[in-house]
Every structure is written in structure tokens, then in C-alpha cells.
Amino acid sequence: MEQPNQTYIDSLSGGDEAFKQKLIDIIKKEYPEEKQVYFDNYNAKNFKLAADNVHKLKHKISILGLEKSYDVAVAYETNLLEGSIDQKEEFEAILNAITIYLEDL
């Protein structure tokens, strides 16, 4: 499985460490909240709202350099909209990897 990284954040910040830290702080604040809302909606079997949550989380996945994981999220979002939970385990493994990564930052 791919590992989250700061490559894209580094390119966005252009060497501005204050800006880079601000981006990281925003991700660290928003990510746990967005992840929890996803789980709440999924557990309530509200797959349409869960798909919306996956859509929001895709941006964090992309920013953290997870290109293949982004593709999994796109497919999972579509599946949820169709009432299918295919790729749930893969998507939630990605969320777990991001959680661990952000805790270590």
C-alpha cells in the first residue's frame, strides 16, 4: 500500500515553511472530523451522504500524494452512490494509513 507523503504539499508551499505548516495544520484539524462524519453516515447506512464524505476525503488523499488510493476513493464513491459497498475495506485501510501518518507529524 502507498504511504502518505508531503511531496505535493512541498510543491505547493514552494519552500515557504510557514505556509507548509499551515496546510498540514488544516489537514490535521479537518481530516479527523471528515473521517468521523463518513463513518457516522456509513454506519447509519446513508450511502449517499457517505459518498459525499468520500468525495471530500479524496482531496486529502490527493494532497497527501496517494495517487492509487485516490483512484480507489473515486471507485468507492461511485459504488456508494450505486448502493454498493465494494472497496470499503480498501478505502478504510487508506483512512487508517492517513490517520497513523498524521499522528506522527
Entry keywords:
about 100 residues; 5 helices; about 80% helix; HPT_dom_sf; HPt domain-containing protein
**Helix-strand topology string:** HHHHH
Largest beta-sheet details? none
Distance between the termini: 19 Å
Overall number of strands:
0
**Overall form:** elongated
User: What's the number of structural domains?
Assistant: 1
How much strand content do the residues show?
under 5%
Spans of at least 5 consecutive residues whose pLDDT stays below 50 are none
Helix content: over 70%
The gyration radius over C-alpha positions equals 14 Å
Q: Number of helix segments?
A: 5
Helix- and strand-based class? mainly alpha
Please tell me about this protein's structure:
Helix 1 crosses helix 2 (17-43), helix 2 (17-43) runs antiparallel to helix 3 and helix 2 (17-43) packs antiparallel against helix 5. The chain has 5 helices and no strands. It starts with 6 loop residues before the first helix and ends with a helix. By secondary structure, the protein is mainly alpha-helical. It has helices at 7-13, 17-43, 47-63, 67-81, 88-104. The longest helix is centred in the first third of the chain and has 27 residues, at 17-43. It is elongated. It has one domain (7-104). This is HPt domain-containing protein. It comes from Algibacter lectus. InterPro entries: HPT_dom_sf (IPR036641).
